[in-house]
Amino acid sequence: MRTYTTNAQLQSALRAHRDEGRRIAFVPTMGNLHEGHLDLVRKARQLGDIVVVSIFVNPLQFGPNEDLDAYPRTLAADKEKLFAEGVQVLFTPRVEDIYPQGMEAQTIVHVPELGDTLCGSSRPGHFDGVTTVVSKLFNIVAPDVAVFGEKDFQQLSIVRRMVRDLCVPVEIVGVSTSRDRDGLALSSRNGYLTREQRRIAPVLHQTLNSCREAIACGFDNFLQLESHARMKLLQAGFDPDYFAIRDAVTLRAVTEDTEEIAILAAARLGKTRLIDNVRLALNPVSDWGMLAGG
Ligand code: PAF
């Protein structure tokens, strides 16, 4: 595995691979790699001949009171894991390589609507930071395909929209969420949880699942389901940010045209903000008949 820090080194190495006709699969990360990231890498290996992983803790996507400084940086351990997975290229740019003019002067990529709701409203500027750095990384790496986790479902939807709107020539592939045995979605932020908080944390996924089951059984009062879920989270010890039943494509309210529902939640346990989601495909004829009470 070769590690590159500068754009120029990386680009000249990748040019050689591209000239040989190799397909480049890219996994952007912020490091502190866990099994969830390694699942993305495994998917990338199936999709490309050369797997490029980037590790860059992107300051532009952290708000002023967020955990940028505390965000776990574990480069040596990450390298070992990537090497063991057969990754050929690691890109570890420095902040000054990605933002040479500083972050204030940086052109921003903003995806409206999808980026303004849910985590976008509770973390203003977060998705602009994500789409800006992902655009830059796409332009530097120029991958044929890029792999993202479905745990950050809103992020995945926004990246897909950005790529479509800006005609970026890359295929985006989503990978289903990796979970611990008790259902907790794997996340670098799980490491912040105390033992007691870790015990409570799976309630987030359980609550999402119960909501999905209720909808699958025909319960169609979404406002009531959302407020019941928020109550359950509060009772368990969370401070819920949102619990929302949305159309999985538009991330807006569910309508008669909805083909798939996404149930998304963000909630704090102490200082740690956890997110998760589950989805439910609707059979257009029978499910809407049932949800409409028919
Ligand atoms: O999902 C992440 O780890 C980050 O948001 C990403 C896509 C690497 C951009 O910094």
- Parts with pLDDT < 50 across at least 5 consecutive residues: none
CATH architectural grouping of the largest domain: 3-Layer(aba) Sandwich
The CATH topology of the largest domain: Rossmann fold
Bound molecules: pantoate
Q: What class, by secondary structure content?
A: alpha/beta
Tell me the strand percentage band.
15-25%
- Tell me how many strands there are: 9
User: Tell me about the biggest sheet?
Assistant: 6 strands, parallel
**What is the element string, with H for helices and E for strands?**
EHEHEHEHHHEHEHHHEEEH
Give the overall form. globular
Could you give me the name of the CATH homologous superfamily of the largest domain?
A: HUPs
Task: Determine the N-to-C terminus distance.
Answer: 59 Å
Overall pLDDT level: 95
Percent range of helical residues = 25-40%
Number of domains: 2
Radius of gyration: 20 Å
Please report the number of helical segments: 11
